[in-house]
Design goal:
- Chains A, B: This is 4-aminobutyrate aminotransferase.
- Chains A, B: Its cofactor is pyridoxal 5'-phosphate.
- Chains A, B: It is an enzyme of class 2 (transferase).
- Chains A, B: One of its GO terms (cellular component) is mitochondrion.
- The structure is a homodimer.
- Among the domains of chain A are: 46 residues, no CATH class; 278 residues, Aspartate Aminotransferase, domain 2 (3-Layer(aba) Sandwich).
- Helix content of chain A is 39%, strand content 11%.
- The first copy, chain A, has 17 helices and 14 strands.
- The first copy, chain A, is globular, with a radius of gyration of 24 Å.
- The relative contact order of chain A is 0.15.
- Chains A and B meet through helix 3, helix 5, helix 6, helix 7 and strand 3 of A and helix 3, helix 5, helix 6, helix 7 and strand 3 of B.
């Protein structure tokens, strides 16, 4: 498919897709869980700019007028990157805060929608979005409105210790926000602060659950357990493990880092638990052209998983896995693999923890990426963070609440101000059908990248993420150079693993942005 | 000293103390680090209520008018605790969120100043303050103002990945906020989210620093290190330890929990690192009456510390310690012990990490509790959270920045919205001399508790916290019962360790609140 860049053609294409979109919306309206009830109204499909056609058409001037004020295109102004104003500010920051991982020093007040503005005024189309953590664009008016609300002010200035002193409205806040998008089958939540502690508290829940079953219901802790736990020794502090997968990433604190297998730089010099890793499938792309050999590879990995956990020196109580390995290089597996993994964890009385920190909240064209899998039973635990702007883990089995109070506890246990922000994000996602929108725009973008890959076969290898929304990546033989040059054509884009360029646009990414992205990527290829 | 409760006497006493306070303020004005410049003005000392006399008297209508609107006294209205409205709300919350550690379900919109209001309208004088994490009272107007500011809105709706995409004003935000109160000798910060990850990232810095020195400057990681780290094995993932102290508390994630030694319930069933614990002094109170035997006990613990780290199975790279063991029971040690510990860590090339998560930000009558110690050299790392409303660790040695980028990193690396909140907290603390104020009110409260202890020697054991601001505690033979009954007289108070009642009032706690507290405590004793 040829990418349309001419504006008239673009309008036509967009509004054609908008019609398909409406049909999809109508189907989605039956999705009671998300409570979507679009009322199609054709005359509202074309906005003033002609190319912003949201799926359902209940009155939502905010989103349309918001995007109408976006810059028309990226604009790279400085002779080099970073420019002189940025250079100076970076040096100033570096005196007090390590800046060696600094990518761009930003002016967030000027950033808008899909566009990130740096201190020198360079305007970058942002398809990295704060490491996949901005859901609705910079300076989103709905978020602005809630940030200025009395609710938000109250939560900010009166931050509670939620486990001891929750506010009377916390149940309502959870139910109308975080829990309104709980993955199917899961109806409870433990709230946390970021991806790492979401995963670690999930691991703790898994360990306590394992020992609960081993100990027998109602059994009290023994004196020996109490005493030995204080010495970090068994049986109170037992030798138990979480299995993760090669190239997986689950965070950087001590427990989560022990399950992270992305790169040595993440792990070097830090003591870790002697926990196992299983093979993650290394599939051939495009997946649909390598069905049989990929199936074999996935079966090999399932066999390896079972061998690994059966032969480990201690009980392996849970497996943790990302739906798409993100930091590790955008590695995909098919539903066959995840179904097999679910079944193996059931067979061996293990928990399945799905780490949706990066994949969750809509970017894959489902609210949760694991909804693509059709598992025989839901994951036991699903963790979230990033685009949620808060964090935690969902679960369904009430026995995953530990046997006693204060076993899973900390002072803040989350943050109502962030829970309110997520509630608003959820509301905007639903109101604007942004999950379906992202599925649609993702398909459009993937298709355009397929065409580009045919034109530049030396530059785009292993294009992946088909039918995974905008969660798209490819391998580049000049990846690090690509990421740098991208800035000079007005793109902010990130990498993952050894060679991948990963796209992580926001949920408000439109087909026109996809066209711009393709144009800019081609501009880079043409320079080479 | 007899507690003054008569209002006329109280006014006189308060304003006498206010004069002493002014003198202290003038001295403090010379403290250039805190940039304090009070302009005494006697006629402003007595507010409309007659008993709120702030130390320095620059115009600060906000704080005075804020406190003037506080409830006059606690008010317990319901027949039982929790009352019927609370009971219903707790049941509703419990359906989705574990409430077994729930203490009070609150109405934060109605809470004010030092008073916490529950869902049934009970008005409690709050000397627990969200587990010591509320610095300036509920619905503080200065915090309200900043929460409504454009700065705050910007930070909330455009949350950056600080390590990659900091905003241009982050250096300024750090320098005028978090770093403006950096402990003497420390001038850099790594920002985090809560106490646990502040400590864990500090531990990671300590491990990387140890291996840097061991490896030799400029040495690259070997192939073997890179490969073994991915398997969680040495040498890439080395066997190294952090030593902590018996009864210490440093958090509940996997690394921090391995250093936590407070109670089995915090640790049971969770795998931990084989790290050592050293003896923490068990002193006799009041400290000034047991100088010699306490000195011996502290020397015994220093000797035990040295033995412990010398004989451990692997290198012990750092010691982590709280200035006052808080969760573990409000256990104190004297400057002699901490000076000795500093010297021993230097002698053995170890880092000293001071965990000021609970003691920091003014409550002990110094901004940082370790400023009471007069160490021979500053701690290497100081961690903070709670009353800072954000978290992280301070350090001074530039080599505590790891050798390469992305070694100490995560997506958010803190939160500018919380950094802005802390900046405002710091500004209010300085403007109102709240550290000195807390030292003064603490001395007053301690003295009143001493009198009460003489009157009720069976109820107040081991009163402690003299000259430690309001960071005061005592042991109670009926502790758990005391904490429950306290609610019914209108007090919200917390426990720590096995038998301690710990006071953690806010920095805006006044002498009149101290009087009320004493009155209510006595009311409980009189019931028994």
């Amino acid at each position: 498919m040829r990418v349309l860049r001419n504006s008239a053609a673009l309008k036509a294409a967009d509004c054609l897709s908008a019609q398909r979109y409406l049909a999809a919306s109508a189907r989605n309206a039956r999705n009671a869980r998300l409570n979507i009830s679009p009322r199609p109204s054709a005359q509202r499909l074309t906005s003033a700019t002609g190319i912003r056609c949201f799926a359902s058409s209940t009155s939502r001037p905010n989103m349309e007028s918001y995007l109408a004020k976006e810059p028309a295109a990226p604009e790279f102004k400085t002779a080099s990157f970073p420019g002189p104003v940025s250079e100076k500010a970076i040096a100033e920051l570096d005196a007090v805060f390590d800046t060696r991982s600094l990518n761009t020093i930003c002016d967030y007040k000027k950033s808008y929608g899909n566009y990130l503005v740096d201190l020198d005024g360079n305007v970058l189309l942002d398809v990295y979005a704060q490491i996949a953590s901005i859901p609705l664009g910079y300076n989103n008016p709905a978020l602005r409105e809630v940030a200025q609300s009395e609710e938000m002010v109250n939560y900010i200035i009166n931050r509670p210790a939620l486990g001891n002193f929750p506010s009377g409205d916390y149940a309502e806040l959870l139910k109308t926000g975080i829990l309104s998008v709980a993955p199917p089958g899961l109806n409870q939540v433990f709230t946390a602060m970021a991806g790492s502690d979401a995963n670690e508290t999930a691991y703790k829940a898994a360990f306590m659950y394992y020992r609960r079953r081993e100990r027998g219901e109602g059994a009290e802790f023994t004196a020996e357990e109490n005493e030995s736990a204080m010495r970090n020794a068994a049986p109170g502090s037992p030798d138990l493990a979480i299995v993760s997968f090669k190239r997986g990433f689950h965070g950087r604190l001590f427990g989560s880092l022990s399950t992270t297998r992305s790169k040595p730089i993440h792990k070097l010099d830090i003591p870790s638990f002697n926990w196992p890793q299983a093979e993650f499938p290394q599939l051939k792309y495009p997946l649909e052209e390598h069905v049989e050999e990929n199936r074999k590879e996935e079966q090999r990995c399932l066999d390896n998983f079972e061998e690994t956990i059966k032969n480990w020196h201690c009980p392996v109580v849970a497996a943790v896995i990302e739906p798409i390995q993100s930091e590790g290089g955008d590695n995909h597996a098919t539903p066959f693999f995840f179904q097999g993994l679910r079944d193996l964890t059931k067979k061996h009385n293990m928990l399945l923890i799905v780490d949706e920190v990066q994949t969750g909240v809509g970017a894959t064209g489902k609210f949760w990426a694991h909804e693509h899998w059709n598992l025989s039973s839901p994951p036991d635990i699903v963790t979230f963070s990033k685009k949620a702007q808060t964090a935690g883990y969902y679960f369904g089995n009430p026995e995953l609440r530990p046997t006693k109070a204060y076993r899973q506890f900390n002072t803040w246990m989350g943050d109502p101000s962030k829970a309110l922000l997520f509630k608003t994000i959820v509301s905007e996602i639903k109101k604007n059908n942004l999950v379906e929108h992202t599925a649609e725009v993702g398909a459009y973008l993937y298709s355009a990248l397929e065409s580009l890959a045919k034109k530049y076969p030396d530059q785009i290898h292993n294009l992946r993420g088909k039918n995974q929304g905008t969660f798209i990546a490819w391998d580049s033989p000049r990846r690090d150079e690509f990421l740098k040059v991208a800035k000079t054509v007005g793109l902010n884009v990130g990498g993952s693993g050894e060679a991948a360029i990963r796209l992580r646009p926001m949920l408000i990414f439109q087909k026109k942005h996809a066209d711009l992205l393709i144009e800019k990527v081609e501009e880079i290829f043409k320079k080479w």
